[in-house]
Amino acid sequence: MRHLIIEEPFSESAIWARRLAVFAVAVVATGLGLARLGLDPTAVLAVIGSAIILACLAILCAGAASVEIWQTGRKGVGLLFGGAFLAVLLLAYPAYLGVQAVRLPVLNDISTDTDDPPSYSLSRKAMTARHGWIPPSISDAAREAQTGAYPNVQPIYLDLEADDAYQAVLAAASALRWKIVNAIPPGGRLGLGHVDAIAHGMILGFADDITVRIWPLAGETRVDIRSSSRIGRHDFGGNASRIEAFAAELKTQANAK
Q1: How far, in Å, CA of 178 to CA of 223, rounded?
Q2: Considering only CA atoms, which of 167, 164, 161 is closest in space to residue 218?
Q3: pLDDT at site 103
Q4: How many CB atoms lie within 10 A of CB 188?
Q5: Which residues are within 8 A (CB) of 69 and not within 5 positions of it... i.e. 6 or more apart?
Q6: Contact call for residues 79 and 42 (beta carbons, < 8 A)
Q7: What whole-number percentage of the chain has pLDDT above 70?
Q8: Close Cβ partners of 158 (under 8 Å, ≥ 6 residues apart)
């Protein structure tokens, strides 16, 4: 007599957990691709936001699947964990940004000189590169908030003549893969030099603006840098990190002189 063996069906929630997570990965990849192609940042953020929602739904389905499998013995543990893993992986960076948003003040423009931040070049070349965008002036409230949040963002002093410091600034910008859009060597009535550049974020590739001021002093040169985000009111600490990276690279270049 033959015995009929009935296999337990797969958990529908587990199946949907993996489907949603895989779809979320595809949506994120699409958003990143569109960002690299220079699509409107608002549209890119909408696509990325959709992926985050899908990842959250995948987590919910994974939770429901765990209860269903525990209670009914249905199959799908592998699907459950696979979907949950992909979803958590996608949500890790947004979660990090959420922590930064709570921990840091709402700032998107940071300067080593809060009393007199360097001004961005208004030359035709610089304006064309920035597509006409001029970063607004930094408010008094933002300057005060920066002082408390980023005490290590300070002017950079180099034991170099102004021309050598200018060359070190260009070398540091190149090493950091910034696109230089305007460069004026030290000279003129005030003796100041300026370098304007554009940097792109590592994840979405959005453009941020940078200006560097080279200020000759007696026996040394002071370098001030300002970094501004074009997108959003909160930079999540990105501009301060960029300035610190520039300061470290500039000192490396200066030591090589």
Answers
A1: 17
A2: 161
A3: 92
A4: 9
A5: 11, 14, 75, 76, 77, 80
A6: no
A7: 96
A8: 164, 165, 168, 220, 221, 222, 223, 250, 251, 254
Contacts (Cβ under 8 Å, ≥6 apart) of 15: 76, 79
Q: What is the pLDDT of residue 96?
A: 93
Q: What average pLDDT is seen over the chain?
A: 91
Q: What is the mean pLDDT of residues 138-142?
A: 92
Give the span between the Cα atoms of 197 and 209, in whole angstroms: 6
Q: Which CATH code of 3.30.310.80, 3.40.50.2300, 3.40.30.10, 3.30.70.60 fits the domain covering 109-255?
A: 3.30.310.80
* Cα–Cα distance measured from residue 215 to residue 222, given in angstroms and rounded to the nearest whole number: 5
Q: State pLDDT tens for residues 182-204.
A: 999 998 777 899 999 999 988 88
Cβ–Cβ < 8 Å for 203, 236: no
Handedness of CA 138, 140, 145, 151 (dihedral sign): positive
